[in-house]
Amino acid sequence: MRLLPDVVVAKGRWFSDEIVTVRDGRITDVGPRSPADATATDITRLPGKALLPGTVNAHCHAFQSLLRGLGDDLDFMAWRDRVLYPYSARLDRDGIYLGAAFAFAEMLLHGVTTCVDFFYLQDEGNDNAEAVIQAARDVGIRLVLARAMYDWEGAPARYRERPAAAARRTADLIAKYRRDPLIRVQPAPHSPHGASSAMIRAGFEVAQSADTPFHIHVAEGQYEGAQTLKDHGATPIRYLDKLGVLGERMIGVHCVWLDDEEVRLMGERGARLAYCPSSNMILGDGITRITELAAAGVLIGLGTDGGCTNNRLSVFEEMRMAALLQKVRHLDGTRLPAEHAFRMGTLDGGRLLDLEVGDIRPGMLADLVAVDLTHPSLHPPGNLLKSVVYAMSPQAVTDVWVHGRPIVQDGRLTTLDQDDLMVRVAALTRGWTSA
After folding, report:
1. What is this structure's pTM?
2. Residue % of the chain over a pLDDT of 70
């Protein structure tokens, strides 16, 4: 496959008259077109379009898209206890599959080509996780299943497992999908409040054994700092450091409430961050200290979080939010420029997950997004990257490829019937009312 757009965005810059060659799911060449290409029949021409790297959603809970609108204008505890826990109890395996397919479809239409689904409805097994994986296959997204490990006794029974069982089941899934070109499984002890010390260590040890990252919610709200200080005599990052898990394998999710020493510790230990600015705003959690963490050497990717704690599933949107929040936090319009935010949502998201995605260059996986340069949100033409981050409407996304396969064409999914999907979602959620 050879693609010829008007513009290619690569290495944080944009180039004209470049052809992108894809073979066996990877980009094999990016170079100027030749005179012979004017009449070549093996080229997919994309006039009036720019070709961008697909975006990476570094943190999401896909099934929660079914709960969109049910918990708006609540704080975290009310949202969890009045919406998440009771409504997730209504979902069987088929409902979990449908929720995941619904979320993945929306993400792809918004230019997300890789999604981390932090999944925790385990029912003492892996069948539900397999439903999420099947949904990703059917819709066509690249999936990192962050297989949650959760044993807080206050959670519903279907969330909870013993550490040894959770570790065994997670390791089984990792082994099963290790050679799959589109699926990765990584352990995810839920959080310092949702997973015991034994569970967190178990998740870390699975990651060590399988040579993967592990994911954990950390310091999302002020309540967690107070709780870990009471229970363990340390704030969340210091507690994880005492457990011996704060290091290069750790992808901390949120990390809103950190002091200067914790920022320094994350950088020194090589820990990574999945930052979800819109979700943090909706729940009133606060603003993560992105500029300080980046300066300390922390690698940062962007996530949407679940569809009922964000309501939108667009990493382009998260780029904009991340940049604007740092500007207003510092009262400085020069902070976190668009180019940095774009990299966080593409290349750095791939690096976060140990995946070769997020840029258009030879050797990278062919996860690509075409946007309509004639769309009003990208006019007047000027600095394309800045316009993509600050101005572009989701309607400008026209085409998406994952692993070289066309998944979205002319704004419609090629893999399944969008209209039927919406009918099924409406039928499942009919009668659900907000908290």
Report:
1. 0.97
2. 99
